Amino acid sequence: MMTVQLVFRIQRLLVTASAFLLLVFSLSAKSIVGSSVHYVEFVSKDVAKQCALLEEIHGVPFGSEVKDLGQAKVAKTKSGVLLGVRAPMALHEKPIIRVYFAVDDIAKAIKTAEAAGAMVAYPPTKQGETGTWAIYILGGIQHGLWQK
Question: What's this model's pTM, rounded to 2 decimal places?
Answer without folding.
Answer: 0.76
